[in-house]
Design a protein that fits this description.
Layout (H helix, E strand, L loop, with lengths): L9 E11 L4 E12 L4 E5 L6 H8 L7 E6 L2 E2 L5 H11 E4 L11 H12 L3 H14 L15 H13 L5 E5 L7 H18 L2 E6 L2 H4 L4 E6 L2 E7 L12
Parallel strand pairs: 3-8, 3-9, 6-7, 7-8
Antiparallel strand pairs: 1-2, 1-4, 4-5, 9-10
Helix pairs in contact: 3-4, 3-5, 4-5, 5-6
Length: 244
């Protein structure tokens, strides 16, 4: 499976996700039409239950739509087998979650290395890629530490390094700063904006955190599964230097 060079990176057409219930069905996404180009730093914003995580899961090939289509990196998510979806994720998509989900018995280096082991990358290339990723998040000196020896902010930076170590075309971040204070959130966001600039990696967030929303360059607001606003904004002044 290869990554096509043409844009857009993501396109949804009349995307619907519904869950059957005893009386009718629950519609989590209702005819969503969106397009994302390479290099965007965008967010799906809305209250709990608005559909943002559901949309992120479909874009990440973790779920499939009930109706409509979702095309990601040239692949129609609704047509992929489980094996094809897993390959798309392992090669081209990085994930950052609210909880960093590090392996507690592995070192920082081993946690970041794990996606490359799945890809079968040779050892010498893995080592260099992991070192580069840890340097990007300014944790090269903690490579031999265990997760229990890290702060919450450091652990989330390791999760970012793990997400971008394979240099994916797309990183999906679901409430990545929800468990962090304002200062650690700022550092995490600066790291992601700089990676967006340096690697031209597309970042798509699901969030209702104002700390994240202030730094988005595009904000898509969802309510009851529908897109109610789609606006582009300038980065905040303290991050202006990181703009791609």
């Amino acid at each position: 499976m290869t990554t096509p060079s043409e844009s857009p990176l993501i396109r949804t057409r009349d995307l619907v996700k519904a869950y059957p219930m005893e009386q009718g069905r629950l519609v989590a996404l209702n005819r969503v039409n969106l397009t994302f180009e390479k290099g965007e730093f965008a967010g799906l914003v809305g209250p709990s239950g608005s559909g943002k995580t559901t949309l992120l899961n479909i874009v990440g090939s973790l779920d499939q739509p009930t109706e409509g289509s979702a095309e990601v990196l040239g692949h129609r998510i609704e047509t992929l087998s489980h094996a094809e979806a897993a390959e798309l994720r392992s090669r081209h998509i990085g994930f950052i979650f609210q909880t960093h989900n590090l392996f507690p018995v592995y070192t920082v280096f081993e946690n970041v290395e794990f996606p490359l082991l799945v890809l079968g990358m040779p050892a010498a290339l893995r080592t260099q890629a992991v070192r580069d990723a840890l340097d990007w998040v300014k944790l090269g000196d903690r490579a031999n530490s265990k997760p229990a020896q890290l702060s919450g902010g450091q652990s989330q930076r390791v999760a970012i390094a793990r997400a971008i170590v394979k240099r994916p075309a797309l990183v999906l971040a679901d409430e990545p700063t929800a468990n962090l204070d304002a200062e650690n959130s700022r550092r995490i966001l600066e790291t992601m904006v700089q990676l967006n600039r340096d690697l031209q990696t597309t970042f798509l967030f699901a969030t209702h955190d104002d700390k994240v929303i202030r730094h988005l360059r595009r904000t898509i607001r969802l309510n009851d599964g529908s897109v109610v606003a789609d606006t582009s904004t300038e980065p905040t002044p303290q991050l202006a230097g990181y703009r791609p």
